[in-house]
Amino acid sequence: MKPSALAFIVAAAAAFAAHGADIYVWTDENGKTHLADSVPPKYRKSAARIDSSQFELSPEQQREAAAARAALEKKASAASAQPPASAARMAAPMGAQPRQAPAASASASASDCDALQREYRESLECFAPYVNANGSVKPGAFAACKSVVNPTLKCGSPKAY
Prior knowledge:
The protein is mainly α. It has 2 domains: 3-81, no CATH class; 85-95 and 104-155, no CATH class. The protein has helices at residues 3-19, 59-81, 85-91, 110-127, 141-144, 152-155; strands spanning 23-27, 33-36, 48-50. The chain starts with a helix and ends in a 6-residue tail after the last helix. Residues 98-106 have low confidence and may be disordered.
C-alpha cells in the first residue's frame, strides 16, 4: 500500500471518529453505490446505516497516525525542495532540451518574476485542452506542452492584470 493511501485512510478514519455522525450507504437506480452522512429523500427506505464506531482510533493509534503523517509531510517537503534531475527530462517533450532553472538569488527581480509568471500562464493555457473531467491530464499533453513549475513560492503572488 502506498504511504499516501495509508495517510488518506488514517485521515478518513480520524475524520469519521471526530464527527461521530451516522454514515449511510445506498444504491441508486443506475446501480451506483453512494456513501454519505445524509440520504436524499428518494433513497431513505433503501439506505443502510453503517456503524462508524469501527473506524474510531484509540489514543495510541492517533499518536501513531500523527507521527506517520508528520514523517510523510517531512519526506514530501524534502522531496519537493529538490526534485530529481530526471523529472525535468520526463516533463519535457521528446527531443527538446530541458529548461534550465533560473539562477538562485536572494530575491528574483521583477522582470524575472514577470517572465516566469508569463511562462507559467502559457504552460497552463497549453495544458488546458488536455485536462480530463476528473482533473487528470491526457498523456499527449506532455509531448505538446512544456511543464513549468508555479513561480509563486519564488516570486510571490502574480500581479493582477
